[in-house]
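Hi there,

I know you've been waiting on this one. I reran it after we fixed the sequence typo, so this is the corrected version. Both the input and the resulting structure follow.
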Amino acid sequence: VFVSVLSIAAGFTAAMQGSGAPDRALVMRSGADSEMTSGLSSVEVDLIKQAPGIRRDGQTAIASAELYVVIDLPKRSSPDAFSNVPMRGVEPTVMKVRDDVSIVQGRMFEFGTNEVIVGRGAAAQFLGLDLNTDLKSGQNIWKIVGIFEADGGVSETELWGDARTLQGVYRRGNSYQSVLARLDSADSLQAFSDWLTSNPQVNVMVRRENEYYAGQSQMLTTLIQTIGFAIAGLMGIGAVFGAVLT
């Protein structure tokens, strides 16, 4: 039991720390501890994309302003149990930003529509996420047109769709929660961060993507390990009393 619990912690840590890249920067509202608690206006997003250090394709910044929502879906292992599944709204530049992502079945969704693509991990774990099926969430129906993988990273547990479509469906106005930017190089982070944090028009914090995911994994990993040691300790005490009584 002890080994099994710690295996969960180790697997979760490996998945989270293996996500992200040092040449990608995640921009969120200052003080936010996760994407869920962050918020950025469209004006702030435009300013972020003007910062030095971002890789560009001509005049287009290789950055994706993203929206993050959570939907409930039944698990394949227990259809009566529902769990949270992340759904991420992205921009057309997302595949250039996240170059570790590839479509393994089907195709990329069309922006401006209700089409979505599903991470390989999510498709394997939850019902209703098969290719070429319709997924109903609330009053909206999403058409699943592709399955993607991300080198085993945490993105494989998500659904992706058009950010502007999600804004309308979930009444988010013209707001986003984060911007993921591809940098000219890993060394460009400092210039990128300094320009944004010194700009009074935006109130943001900047982190390397891989460092963000490593930080997110630390709290849950500690909790899992604490539970593992507690269970092992109780079982050890029980075994001692059992042996003494025998």
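Quick highlight: The radius of gyration is 21 Å.

Best,
R. S.
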